[in-house]
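Students often ask why we bother encoding 3D structure as a string. The short answer is that it lets us treat folding as translation between two languages. Here is a chain of 202 residues written in the first language.
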Amino acid sequence: MLESLRAAVAAASAAEALSVVLGVAYLLLAVRRSRWCWVAGGVSSGILVYLAARSRLPMQAALQVYYVAMSAYGFWHWSREPADADRAVGTLPLRLHAFACALIVLASVLTARWLQLETQAAWPYLDSATTWASLFTTWLVARVKLENWLYWVLIDAVLAFLFAVQGLYLVALLNLVYVIIAFYGFAAWRKSYRRGELAHAG
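And here it is in the second language, the structure alphabet:
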């Protein structure tokens, strides 16, 4: 297994490797709340549009198109706020999380059934669920909501599996790295959120 992984990584295309590097840069910059994370993420997602479509993951390809658009929005939105780490971290009410999760499940089931009938999608249910969940979670990032990192832990773990079974091992490894960074991002943003609460209380 390890030898197969090494061989696949060695055979990875330059486009896949570049996407991985920019993807890691995106998350590290996002942890620091730097608006330049959106530039790195946008270029990485642009590359992944092609890679996901070629690997018969149509929902992931569509998701990457959305990421490109959200990168433009995120850069614009963060450019209007205080610089980098001064951006206030907020939270979303629990009832809105519950509502969003219900919509994600419903949309995932409907989309997966359509994919089964109309396409040759390899993993229609997981592909759909991670896509719809990622749409919501990316919005949480753009709005600087703390909970986004918890969603990414689960989403990226599933995506690591999806890309690995489709032979995109570098992208799979990237998503495993994302899981680790997401834990770190949550811890860093939670500290900032608590400082903000204390400052507001004072």
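Translate back mentally: DSSP finds eight helices and no strands in the chain. Keep this in mind for the problem set.
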